Amino acid sequence: MNNLVEIVNLTKKYGTNVAVNHLTVSLPKGKIIGLLGPNGSGKTTLIKILNGLLTPTEGTILIDGNNVGPATKSKVAYLPDRTYLTMNQTIREILDYFQDFYADFSRERAEEMLKSLGIDPTVKMRTLSKGTKEKVQLILVMSRNASLYILDEPIAGVDPAARDYILRTIINNYNPEATVLISTHLIEDVEQVLDEVIFMRYGQLVLYTSVDNIREEKGKSVDAYFREVFAC
Ligand SMILES: Nc1ncnc2c1ncn2[C@@H]1O[C@H](COP(=O)(O)OP(=O)(O)OP(=O)(O)O)[C@@H](O)[C@H]1O
To answer: Any idea where the ABC transporter domain is (predicted)?
Structure first.
């Protein structure tokens, strides 16, 4: 089976508000996929369902053949759109925790990335700037050897110089059999690393295609095409 994720007829309602609306899509192995859509299109809701943080109203998701649950949690590395780390711990203490908690965590990889970004592991999280906290979180996630990485706005608070390093890290440090799903509004920055893109609107799939296809068939960058499709 080449598909890592199979989403079938997925619907999530918050009361009467339909956030994800009968979504059916399959994600292959070994691709970096952009999950793109205007505000409120259902990206974060979908990501939370993939991580077992929300229960769908209807439909199914299989990740590597398993329903979302304990079996998939050990295979999915998730970067949420807000900080979840304990602020009065040092980075080193957090590395200890990740090492204990995740069998697939490479401390060596995490320490190397921290060093490349000039982040001192002896300092407490609380003392770091917002962007540096985000870098630490991303390093922790990318240091796992997961099957599926789900990154919700991974570079939003990161300065442009570090963005390139982080994007290179995403490409270079993950297992080529794994898939990376990146939700972002910073399309121009991220599209250089994407293989494929999903466009969502009103909780539905608008388009799922390769970045090369958009460039060749539309003669446009993903960013320019997104602006055209979703022009207000
Ligand atoms: N906890 C909630 N209760 C009620 N409605 C919600 C809740 N969370 C999200 N929604 C609604 O669900 C829809 C999809 O929201 P979601 O956050 O998934 O979109 P998004 O594509 O991630 O948006 P953004 O790009 O702004 O982060 C929106 O209409 C939103 O108002």
So the answer is: 5-227
Distance 42 CA to ligand 1 centre (A): 6
Counting atoms of ligand 1 from 1, which one is nearest the CA of 38?
25
Nearest to 198 by CA among 30, 87, 41, 81: 41
Q: In 80-203, where do the E strands start and end?
A: 148-152, 179-183, 196-201
Q: Which residues does ligand 1 sit against, CB inside 6 Å?
A: 14, 17, 19, 37, 39-45
Query: CA 17 from chain center: how many Å?
Result: 24
Between 176 and 195, the more confident residue is 195
16: helix, strand or coil? coil
Q: What is the mean pLDDT of residues 88-112?
A: 94
Domains contained in the chain, CATH given: 3-229 (3.40.50.300)
